[in-house]
Structures are given as structure tokens and as C-alpha cells.
Amino acid sequence: MINYKVLPLLSSLLLYFSAFSQVTITGNIDNYDGTSKLYYSNSWQGIYPKIDQVTSPNSNGKFIITLDNQPLGKVNISYKRFRATLFFNENAKLELDLNELDPDSFSISGSLKSINNYYYAASRVMNSPIIGVSGNGPSRFLSEIQSPERIVGALDSMIRKDIGVVSEKRPISLEKTYPEMLEIVSHHLENEIKSYYANVFLNAMFLKKQNQAIKTAKNDRDSVAIYDERWHSLIESFSKNIRKIIQPTPSSLYYNEFLRMHSYILQTYKDNEFYQPVSIDEDIYDKLVGYDSLLFNDSKSVLAYQLGYLNTFLASDLYYSPALLDITNQIRDENPDLPYWSLLESNINRMKKSIIAGGRKYRDAKIIKTNYTTFQDLINQFEGKYLYVDIWATSCLPCIQEFKYKDEVLKNLNPDGEILYISTDRISFDDRWKQSIKYNKLEGYHVRANNELIIDIWDEIGGFKGAIPRYVLIDQSGNIFNTEAASPSDIQALKRQIEEMRNTTISDKR
pLDDT band at residue 270, thresholds of 50, 70 and 90? Predict the structure, then answer.
């Protein structure tokens, strides 16, 4: 039996904070490629919202990370395919050795070496990625089971098996040297496993709902056999009893991801269609303020949940709005001492500038209001001009990041070329689309494509449908010259393609 009374000790230890010195983690990456970065994120006073920081190893692959003192904290370190979570205590000094060519091979020495080796070995039972839309192995397996009773049995079997691994790998030698810490870490692991598999279960329910939607579109009679009221009852039962099974562990990535998944599933599972907010602001409000409070029986879980979503929203200017700024300021006023604010500051400032820019006039952007339904009709309007087509959306971060190279593109297109920006944003994102144009100062022509035009564009240019950013070159006659043109950041390759297009056009005219 698990003694859950021990679990709150972790949060209690993490409550205290010491600033007399710092924790240092030094590391070495054998066979370092010389350019890749290392990412890390750490807990603070018992919460872990996973807000990444980045460091660049030197040319020899050596790096150093410094963290604020905590009696017992956690740091997650990632480098390419390598992932590890380490515990540290006050004034700890840890050393980490990785191998570029073998991400599964690493060693740790220094403070809490035995504790960290134990945690790493036992936590590998949760080695599948955090759940996405397509699920992972365990969630796909559960989603194919046809009865709630069998799902409950399979899930219980998975949890018991992996908790058995935690007990099996528990080092007896530490029971004398670090008895209290070993007990905390062991029960922390058990709770993480339960959080992980709760997420697996919820994702399986999501996949069942997804499968129902696909089948219903083909034949309404199939839907009941796939997803009926028994699954609704199972989710409701799960939600009512989950507090008895999982203790609040806001310093755990798996627990915090579970809270986010549970919040979404509760909004979705009774709907015939997947839950889609009416507007971006509604989505912001639902995630940051109007969430279901069923699981949030401690303030630290609430804060970790809010910061996790806030970090997501601030990373994309799709969500930049006065509503997000107001809620950000509210959370900040309530928690002014959080060290995470310094990490979010640059994105908060970007949001402020974007909101201000959205209220200004920007005359260099020419909005095309004609409701074109074919790609050819659209590009025919530019006959006599070379055209660089940029297909993007406000929700696409890689698209936005390419905008900083736009001036070089214009320089190589002038004087006989233009940029045509085609947005695939839905109609409800009209204001955000125009705001992003102004904030990023996108000189050129702009179209927010309707569904007919989007379908026709992909039919014309081929490739993986919907994959953006995508760039296309059009010659002066309105013919598609290159369906997969170089990106703005690859300016030398793009320059060669533009020159080739010009030379080909001149040759054809002769």
C-alpha cells in the first residue's frame, strides 16, 4: 500500500527557498556537434510549469547551469533526444556526462548521485512522449478496447506493473543514508506514474471520440458502436474518483500535463464535435480563468497550470490580445515574486508591441478583398510581375519567425516583383491576421484564403497538404515556376531561384 501522507512532504520541502548560494550543474557532451543548444527548466517552490531556458555548450561540449537554492528541487534537461530529470538540494554540485552519438548513455556524479540514478532508472517506464493528437503506444492500445470494464482492467495492470518497477529499483543502500528523501522520491515516482497513465486513459477517450467522428461522417449507424454512453459514464466516474488516486504534485510534468488534458476532455467528451472556442479570447479565458476546478484543490496546481498555458499563449502572436494582456497582468499581480516572469518578459513585451501595432494604420500592406476561389485567378492579377507567394497562418510559429528576413526577399524581388502573403486563418481570426500584418510590417499583398481557395492552392502546388510555411515562385506570365521555393531565411538559395526564374523568362521571350 502506498502511504500518500508522505507525498505532501515533497511540496513542504519545496516551499522553503534559500538564496545564500546557488546550485551548479556542470556537464560534458562527448562528440558535441559544436552548434546545438541544451534546454533546461526547473521547479520553484513546488511548481513546475516547464518554461525552458537555453544554454550553449562551448566548442568542447562543456556547459554549466546555475539554479537558485532549494532544499529539494527538480530540473529537467534536454539535448536533442536526451531527456533527464534531476533532483537537487541546497548548494548541490552535480556533474553530467552525455554522448552525442548515444543519447541513452549518460552518467551523473556529485550530489544525490544515487537518488538521481534511481529516479532516472525508475522513471523510464514512462518513456513514451507526452500525449499528442495521435496518441502514443499505450493510449492507442486502450482506445481499441471495446468495453469499459476491459479498459479499467488493462489500465490497472499497466499501473501495477510500472509501480512494481519503482519498488524493484528502489536502492536498499539509500534507506540508511537518505531515508526521508528516498521515501519522498519513491512516492513522487508512484504519483507520476498514476498521472502519466491517467493522461494515457484520457487520451484513449479522445482517440475514441475522434474515431467516432470519422465513422459518423461515413455512416451514422456506426457511431453508437464506437462511442456510447458507457464511455461517458466511465469518464464521469474517473473524474469523481481521481482525487483519491492521484495526489496534487505540481512539481511534476506528468501531473501538470494530466491537468491540462483532463480540463480539455471535460469540455469535449459530451459534444458531438470536438470543442472549438468561438474566439481566441474565449479560448484564452477558458484555459486561464474559466477552467473546471474539479482537480484544483491546491493553489500550486492552479499556478502551475496557468503558467503552463500562459507560456504557450505568449509563444505565438495568434493569442496576442488585450484579454491575454489583462489576464497576464492579473496573474503577475497575484504572484509578483515568481522568477519565471523574467523568462516570459520578452514575449510579454512582444505582445504589448503587437497590440499597439494592431491599432495603428499600416499603408504598405495591400489587403485583397476579392473573394477568389482559384489560385490561378488570384495570381493572374499580378501578370507582368514576378511573384513570391508566402502561405502562412497566425498560429504557425515557424511562419512568423521567417518574417524577419522579409526585407532581403523584397530586395531581391525589386523592382519587378512582389510578395503575396496568403493566410489560411479561419474567418474568426480576421482581426488577429490584420494585427499580425501590422506588427510584422509585412509590405506586399495579402489574402486571407477561403476554403475553396485553400483547397485549390494545394491541388495546384501539390506536396503535403496544409504544411506551412510554404513558398512558391510565379513568373511574369502567371505560371508556377517553383512549387517549393526556398524560405526567406535561406536567402542565398532563394536568390539563385529568383535569378533562374528571371533568366528562364527572358530566354522564353527570345
Answer: low
